[in-house]
Fold this protein.
Amino acid sequence: MILTHEHKEIYNTAKKFVVEELNPHIDEWEAAGIWPAREVLKKMGDLGLLGITKPVEYGGLGLDYSYELMFAFALGNCRNGGVPMGIGVVTDMATPALARFGSHELKKEFLEPTIKGDRVCSIAVSEAGAGSDVAGIKTTARRDGDDYVINGSKMWITNGTQADWACMLCNTGEGKVHQNKSLIIVPLDAKGIDRKTKLDKLGMRASDTAMIFLDNVRVPRRNLVGQEGMGFMYQMIQFQEERLFGAASGIDGLTNIINETIEYTRQRQAFGQSIVDNQYVHFRLAELKTEVECLKAMVFQACEQYVAGQDVMMLASMAKLKAGRVAREVTDSCLQFWGGQGFMWETNVARSYRDTRLLSIGGGADEIMLGIICKMMGILPGKRKAAELKAKREAA
Ligand SMILES: Cc1cc2nc3c(=O)[nH]c(=O)nc-3n(C[C@H](O)[C@H](O)[C@H](O)COP(=O)(O)OP(=O)(O)OC[C@H]3O[C@@H](n4cnc5c(N)ncnc54)[C@H](O)[C@@H]3O)c2cc1C
């Protein structure tokens, strides 16, 4: 991928914002268990960073995903994972389907103010009983006149205690589980919504994560994204950007952790020499750096194909899988080389170890990524068995 002046401009603008506006406050927000989404997003909206790939008509920059990739890379310089995740929900997780399939009126009402930084949003798919198994969600949206009436609950919703609206996956029919769902834009101040429960987490501590309960919540039917019954498909498409963002936004952070570990082990002495001078240590750091570069190359490749309009289901899943695995390797090995200091709560490597653990779980666990890759390789037994059965039937 050839990087232009504009790519570098977006990267530099976003990195400067991270360094000057986010990093000085990260410790305070980690301790508070929440980031001031409204205040931060307003500043980012003013810089034009919240709608890089979104249509110009709604305040976006109308650029292709390679520019969003630069933004995601830059966010990796934030000294925690929770704030980039909260920002990524707004730019890459809750808005792609609305931008692509939503009506003009819906985009005017929800997308435009979100790109400006005037509204905070969430993506609400997971439920207590259905995370990996998205098709198994139980929340229903029943038609009643010009409204939907929504009942159910959503679990682990990022930005959930402070968002103004959520892009929510609901069952709108009784049919097949992949054809009975819809994405609905739900204003989170609607009557019947309870989202007070902020969850206590191992990492990503500056990001608020909520349980959302919905009791006869009325939402106008015009808040439907695209067509009714297409929600599962839209969400699978929307996951592509979520997964590309997830893979890309960790990369600079991992490089920084490796660099900080080199610095620390260079000045730390044991047995009369710097820790980094042990061959095991410097070879391992070289291996980790190599892994991060491989991940970056894969992310670039997936992005290039996505921009070219190709199906990146397999590459995006591979990049997300690889990101989770590389992050676990890098943070675990680096923490080891920091010794006791690495085990201290405030140390950057310890925070990274806690925060990046989510990469292998959120937005589709590693095993779900492996299932998708197997499916696309044609080696998922279910698909093969069905094909064998079909062939047998046709032969009989
Ligand atoms: C901090 C945080 C923030 C989150 N933010 C959001 C959000 O904003 N919006 C949202 O909708 N969701 C969000 N989630 C939910 C997240 O996407 C889910 O936790 C994730 O999809 C996994 O679902 P689950 O927790 O129900 O795990 P389960 O489905 O219970 O699976 C548990 C484990 O079982 C294994 N497993 C599952 N299925 C298979 C299989 N087919 N084959 C082999 N192994 C399998 C995997 O190891 C998996 O990790 C968030 C979660 C966390 C922790």
